[in-house]
Design brief:
Structural class: mainly beta
Distance between the termini: 22 Å
Strand order of the largest sheet: 3-4-7-8
Helix content: under 10%
CATH superfamily: Kelch-type beta propeller
Number of helices: 0
CATH topology: Neuraminidase
CATH architecture: 6 Propeller
Radius of gyration: 17 Å
């Protein structure tokens, strides 16, 4: 069995050994010329796709650390999609509030390293993967595909 936490060919987005996925989110404040925290995503992930549309931030797919080979422990490549809706301005600081994350319908395929873009008011989740080509030969992997 392949262990995605130690197999260097497992991920379409190679990461150094020991790297931990994050769920934190920051917004750049042009007025303050600094990064300010907003509410964290509901779950940690790396290799996710993100895009802004109509004043909201969308995050789709990615990989959540902690997948155990042969176990459906709710970790691995993701189908989950979240949207961050900014709060109205904070009346005390006159800046954008922390925002609120909401769950959207999951994509049809679990994926990491994809592209999310907006065109004509629609979101498009493109490509990515959960298996990869290594050394010119396809390597089938047992992976965590979750909703």
């Amino acid at each position: 069995m392949i262990d995605p936490t130690t197999d260097p060919f497992f991920s379409p987005f190679p990461t150094p050994s020991g790297m931990q996925a994050l769920k934190t989110v920051e917004r750049y404040s042009r007025a303050k010329n600094e990064w300010v925290p907003v509410n964290s995503m509901p779950m940690q992930r790396r290799g996710a796709a993100c895009c802004g549309l109509d004043g909201k931030l969308y995050v789709a797919g990615g990989y959540q650390d902690g997948y155990e080979v042969g176990k459906n422990n709710g970790k691995g490549f993701l189908r989950k999609v979240f949207v961050l809706t900014p709060n109205d301005k904070d009346s005390r600081s006159k800046t954008l509030g922390m925002g609120k994350w909401n769950i959207m319908p999951s994509s049809t395929v679990a994926r990491g390293g994809a592209c999310l873009c907006a065109m004509n008011g629609q979101l498009y989740l493109i490509g990515g993967g959960f298996a990869l080509q290594a050394h010119g030969k396809r390597h089938e992997r047992e992976i965590g595909l979750i909703g």
